[in-house]
Each structure stands twice: as structure tokens, then as C-alpha cells.
Amino acid sequence: MKKRRHIELNDEILEVLNVPFPKEKQGNFWFCFPFSVKMVIEFYRMTEPALSEHIPNPSIEELIDHLKVNRYTGIKLTANKITQLNQLTKPLVFNLYVNQEVEKLQECFKKNIPAILIFNNTYYFRDAVGAAHATVLIGLTETKFIFNNPWAGEAYPYDYDKFIESWEIEDRQLILPKVVIDVNLEKFGDKDEVG
Question: Is pLDDT larger for residue 183 or for residue 13?
Fold first, then answer.
């Protein structure tokens, strides 16, 4: 499967990352982070055929249970929670970064990395600070960010400037996936042998 696809948005054709949107609905519960993680896992399983059999495929329910996500309050993202997540998803590992810049998002898009962003959804829509929300970046233009948003929907556009304000409230948090392959050199012979 290709890493990118084209969509039509407001009579404009845009290229976005081909991140699958879940068939399951998030509903009224605070499961945006596990849903976002599931989208990223599916992206790598579908676009990296040589690695797909090595990347675990946990269900939404398994992610929710493993991370102990509260249906009414969500999850507080910490280094420990990310470590817990990585125990379930390795060799696909996630890293949490704070105080990131827009240039990092542009770089992720150029490198076909579906980044998970944490922003203040309530502020974006109502100009009032509320709970944080997770969403997956699939594209960007000079005026918009395009997300697969577990609540709002697939290929959902956000105004560029308003989104930046909403992201700033949540310390510009960014969770990046990376495939990490452990190489066992022992199967190639004695560790002390040199080629």
C-alpha cells in the first residue's frame, strides 16, 4: 500500500499520508490516544510489508486496557505511559517530545511519519481551555493542518493559526513513532570475530 493518497478538500486536491481511519467509533469516551496509536500502528503495518508481521496488532480494547485509559478522563501522558505503550507495540516504538516547532511537523510529513499531536480541542472550538486531545497529522498546507481525528473524523482540516494556539496550550506535545529493529549479532558467529 502507498504511504500517500490524494483527497479533495474545499475544491482543492491535497496529498496526505495514507493513515487508515478506524472503523470502530470512539463514541463519547476519552479514548483519543489509543485510537490515534491504533491508526499509526495500522499505517506501518499496511505500508511496510517487510515489517508488518513483526509489528504487533493490538485491538483498541487491548490498548485501552494496557494503558489503563479511563473512559471519562482519558490518560495523562508521561514517559512511563509511553514506556508501557512500547512494551505492547515494539518494534514500533513511540517517543514523547514537548515544545516542538512547526518545522518538526513539516519534517514528519516530508518523511511520511504520522505524528500524534496533543492539543487543546476545547480551546480550538470554543476559545476556552479544556482537556487535551490526541490526533494524527496526515497533511498540512500553508493555511491548514489535516488530521485523522478520533472525534472529528477522517481528513479533518484545522485552521493553521488557531491550531498552533491550541497546541501551544498543551506544550506543543508530539508523539513520534519509529521502527526499531534489534539485530542479534550472535547468529552471525562469534562476537569477537571480525570480518
Answer: 13
pTM of the prediction? 0.90
Domain boundaries, the chain: 29-179
> What's the start-to-end Cα distance of the chain, in Å?
38
5-52 pLDDT, tens digit each: 999 998 999 999 999 998 876 666 789 999 999 999 999 999 998 888
- String of DSSP letters for the chain: --SEEEEEETTEEEEEE-PPPPSS--TTSS-HHHHHHHHHHHHHHHH-HHHHTTS----HHHHHHHHT-BTTTB----HHHHHHHHHHHTTEEEEEE-S--HHHHHHHHHTT---EEEEEHHHHHHSS---EEEEEEEEE-SSEEEEEETTTEEEEEEEHHHHHHHHHHTTTEEEEEEE-----GGGGS-TT---
Residue 26's Cβ-count burial label (10 Å; 0-12, 13-18, 19+) is middle
Could you give the count of Cα atoms lying within 13 Å of 22 in the half-sphere of its Cβ?
Answer: 25
Per-residue cell: 82: 509511553
How many residues does the structure list for the chain? 195
The topology (CATH level 3) of 29-179 is Cathepsin B; Chain A (3.90.70)
| Contact yes or no for 40/114 (Cβ under 8 A) | yes
